[in-house]
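Deliverable D5.2: sample structural annotation.
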Amino acid sequence: MRLPHILGLSVALHLYIGARIIPAMAGAGPAALLALLLAASALFVPVGMFSRQLAKPPVSDTLAWAGLPFLGLFSSLFVLTVLRDALLVLAWILSLLTPAVMLDDVRTATAAAVPLLALAATFIGFLNARRTAQVKTVEIVLAGLPAPLQGFTIVQISDVHVGPTIRARHVQAIVETVNRLKPDLVAITGDLVDGSVAELGAQVAPMSRLVSRHGSYFVTGNHEYYSGVHPWLVELDRLGIRVLLNEHVVIERDGARLVLAGVPDYSAAHFDPAHRSDARAALAGAPPDAMKVLLAHQPRSAPAAALAGFDLQLSGHTHGGQFLPWRFFVQFQQPFTAGLHKVGKMWVYVSRGTGYWGPPKRFGAPSEITRLRLVAAPT
């Protein structure tokens, strides 16, 4: 959709919110303030979404910062307004059954609650999004794990979304946190960037400072294909990050071997047929007796990975929903939203992501830098 269409849609949806909330508010002052807020939001939401079409950096980044927080606020306002309408229908039905239900009081109280709750969720969500992701430690219990691989540590970064509001300073803080964990290897499971190498190369550059015993590995996410995937593959190689495209590396420790494989994003073939995700091809020539770990951006890759014989898949993509209520809708598009799950004999870990996409807002789905520790199953 083009900017005029998005602007028209934005105005229409904001008018719906205003028409449902403002007449029921107690006092002219709060009603006027909400009207001004909705007018600003109706304008700035499309500005944030189309910032790169409206101007070039750094002006486009300023426009994004002006508009994207409003996108997060609008999302909460719209959802809460719809929920309020559903509640009012229920209150109307109850008022027909019992005179004790005062429908006007319900209208007034809920009209005040909608903007207050939306502003609170947006403010808290902003603080959660802008802080450096917290470390989450997860133990992966694997049957038959060789003794030399006991305690092998993979630190996973996913969905950083370097772009107009996530810049080099934020990336550097992530890198410093990862390095303090002293991992055996670093896995970057896609959606690192939202923009071209020309726009964001300098902002991604701190990733070259990642330090681990066996190196840093990357698989593409869907946003790499929106951002010009082939220049990014060259740039990541220049930064010392190994890209795995339907291929694997063998990591050895004291005679024990771990196969680390990677596949392109589940949807990659739509952008480049040569990048079709193929878990079996990623294992071609791998030692059959080794532990097998797959990096795959989307959880939807899990059934194929399990059939190919992997022991563990690491994914991202979902952001854990990023903020309420969208976390409840992810499950309609992906088999898993976040956390540790199992497909057949294979474990799947889905990161909630290390950054955020779009509005700087995380509410009910905190970001994470995941420290995965491999441990042997009890015998």
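Annotation notes: The mean pLDDT is 94. Residues 60 and 250 are 43 Å apart (CA to CA).
The annotation will be released with the project's public dataset once the embargo ends.
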